[in-house]
Amino acid sequence: MEENIRINKTTEDDGVIFMSVKDEKENDNNTDVVKSTDVTILAIESSCDETAVAIVRNGRTVLSNIISSQIALHTVYGGVVPEIASRKHIEKIDYCVKAALEEAALTFADIDAIAVTYGPGLVGALLVGVSEAKALSFALDKPLIGVHHIEGHICANYIENKDLEPPFVCLVASGGHSHLVVVKDYGEYDIIGQTRDDAAGEAFDKVARAIGLGYPGGPKIDKAAREGNPDAIEFPKTKIEDAEYDFSFSGLKSAVLNYINGLEMKGEQVNQADVAASFQKSVVDVLAEHALKAVKEYGYDKLAIAGGVASNTALRERLEKDCANNGISFYRPSPVLCTDNAAMIGAAAFYEYKKGVRSGLDLNAVPNLPLGERERRFHANK
Amino acid sequence: MKILAIDTSGLVASVAVTDGDILVSEFSIQFKTTHSQILVPMMDAIKKNIGMDLEQIDAVAVAKGPGSFTGLRIGAATAKGLCLALNKPLIPVPTVDGMAYNLYGAEKIICPMMDARRNQVYTGLYTFIPTTHEGTGQITYTMKTIESQMACSIDELTEKINKLGKTVIFLGDGVPVYHDKLEELIQVPFSVALLNHNRQSAASVAALAQKIYEDGGAINGMDFAPDYLRMSQAEREGGSPKGSKKTTKRPGIVRIREMRAEDITEAYELEKESLGHEAWTEKQILEASTRDDTIYVVAEKTGKIVGLCGVRNVSGDGEITNVSVSKAHRNDGIGYKMLKQLIERGKGLGINAYTLEVRASNAPAIRLYEKLGFKCEGIRPSFYTEPADDAAIYWRKEQ
């Protein structure tokens, strides 16, 4: 998987990083003759600080995957600034669409449908992608498919695991979400657990800031933890009594902050690496224990992970080991497909397309779009 | 030429299709709907009703700003998507210029204004200059821009209008918001445009777009971004210079906002930390901040109050009564940002000069005041006690 992924990166004058992601193995498939039953979807994602456009065939073959990442612009503010993100999306979006078509050596005439993330996310950011997608759909007279961002993350697993089919359990963990989801069928999701307070990724960001690692917290803690001792400090693992699959990370975050304050009061140095490793172990333990338990109790034999936190090395290693020991097949996307991208939106859109789901031109951005009980308000065929 | 024009900069969502000098269709909605939901369906309705072939459009025109940031982006992303799909050029039209075009032919001063919040309007000043053509006797008009579109306070705007001394016609959604203030400050005859000319109109955008197109103002849609006329709040307040890789010592955005009742306890703690026994009591702060001749603002960072300052209007002179920044956040430019805002907001109270007292030995504070244009105009010997110190009197007078 990962070894085939090649990322072409260029940093633009404004600090935005432009990436074209290629799976070399896929490119061989690309020369296949296009069949009339093939469905080629142009997908747009702009829910946070990445402007992304991809072209995906039949939900599993990525023909192009363009990501314009603004992360460097937001670092100075210690987190994503919505207005700055929205402004950059507007500047970049057409270029990403054009690059996606060029990279796939296609024109608009080859596209069967336009897909776009319409929530959840930052409303101003989402609106750029949604408005662009609607204009393309209207001007080209192609069907429009609104996609749930988290469903996209889950579907990222289909891209590199051609054999993965529902049902399975998926652990979704990112800066904004921590969900344990049963994927019953394509496009059918039951949420069995979710966070009561902070998302896992949020806890990473906050702790990273507290120990001076800065933003973004996920990769920084992942890296620092490799030098540290995960058993150096005993941080709590919160269990929720009445909902065994729910998460809570704010207690853990407070424990870390208290620990740091305690040391500072005594005038002692904080060992960044040990705090990072011990904190990370606590998060990984909870995520892995919940996920394993769910797979076993629901009687499935497949576990997938998705979202930014799914690229955390400790979590991947832990789940790989636990799954192998329990006869569970473990699926995870390449790190670049764990972060926000449009290829995953194209994958999710394909299965919606097959089911006949079409969005109307009145599709709106829904910043807190729920997963599971899905928003059908804007679907043309209610 | 055929133009598809869009304006979503304000309260109205408006789409028009023009063909040469004919307005084929215009569809505007000013209702509680969101632009993002109705804009493309409005276009679709026009397309269906006039059997429009989008390929036949020569260009897409869009109100480029100023306006509501989100509204501008909905229009911009839609226009960009259309241009990209149809391979057509984009004509950006300054929003306020487009509004002035509603009153084509008016030889009075035309003043469109949109509510820009924070006590400001997006506005500009225009008039139409007639030219009589020999032979036919027909008059044509050229729009003259007296003040280009900008963001400014009503006070600044009325001052400019009063100086021109000519009859003015107001239009735009800023008029009802600031009507009382306009009545109070304006010294020239004025009227307000009727509802048929009073808001953004895509037809006006198209009419002006034609002229911009003829002057070579069409661009590739890919390179288009709105002209906001304002930086984002984060850049304004937590600002680091564009492109700088400066790492902040204490990350987190500083927000400057008006003080509220629930801030009082935190504000008192801050005062106590920074001023010790000279600090005001909670009751004093509460009383001072709730009067209507005062303005108090606080600096908030990651949910904590890290700075506060306040001013009291004493017959046009602003007496700055408090300036505190928490010890952990000094030298972060918080005092500067707070005072800048305080001075800006003070204009709303009619303050045109500011004064304050400071311990003569407090060099960092004095540096800050001098940076803001304050000048030392006197000393009160031994004004302060524990430790004894002179008070330096500083004044900042509007130029």
Can you characterise this structure?
The complex is a heterodimer of chains A (382) and B (399). Chain A is of the alpha/beta class and 382 residues long. Chain A folds into 2 domains: 5-161 and 338-381, ATPase, nucleotide binding domain (Nucleotidyltransferase, domain 5, 2-Layer Sandwich), CATH 3.30.420; 168-332, 2-Layer Sandwich (Nucleotidyltransferase, domain 5), CATH 3.30.420. Chain A has helices at residues 24-29, 71-75, 82-104, 123-140, 149-160, 200-210, 217-225, 250-265, 272-298, 313-325, 335-338, 343-354, and strands spanning 5-11, 17-23, 40-45, 50-57, 61-69, 113-119, 144-148, 168-173, 178-185, 188-194, 302-306, 329-331. In chain A, strand 9 and strand 10 (188-194) form a beta hairpin. The relative contact order of chain A is 0.16. Mean pLDDT of chain A is 90; it is low at 374-382. By secondary structure, chain B is of the alpha/beta class. Chain B folds into 3 domains: 2-93 and 200-225, 2-Layer Sandwich (Nucleotidyltransferase, domain 5), CATH 3.30.420.40; 97-192, Nucleotidyltransferase, domain 5 (2-Layer Sandwich), CATH 3.30.420; 254-397, 3-Layer(aba) Sandwich (Aminopeptidase), CATH 3.40.630. Chain B has helices at 35-50, 69-86, 95-100, 154-164, 174-185, 202-214, 233-237, 264-275, 282-290, 334-346, 363-371; strands at residues 2-7, 13-19, 22-29, 59-65, 90-94, 109-115, 120-132, 139-153, 168-171, 190-192, 254-258, 294-301, 304-314, 317-325, 353-359, 375-384, 389-397. In chain B, strand 2 (13-19) and strand 3 form a beta hairpin. In chain B, helix 1 (35-50) runs parallel beside helix 2 and helix 4 (154-164) crosses helix 5 (174-185). The A-B interface holds A 14-15, 76-78, 81, 83-84, 86-87, 89-91, 93-95, 97-98, 108, 123-124, 127-136, 138-140, 209, 214-215, 360-365 and B 34, 36-41, 43-44, 54, 69-70, 73-74, 76-86, 221-222, 225-226, 228, 232-235, 238, 240, 243-248, 251-253.
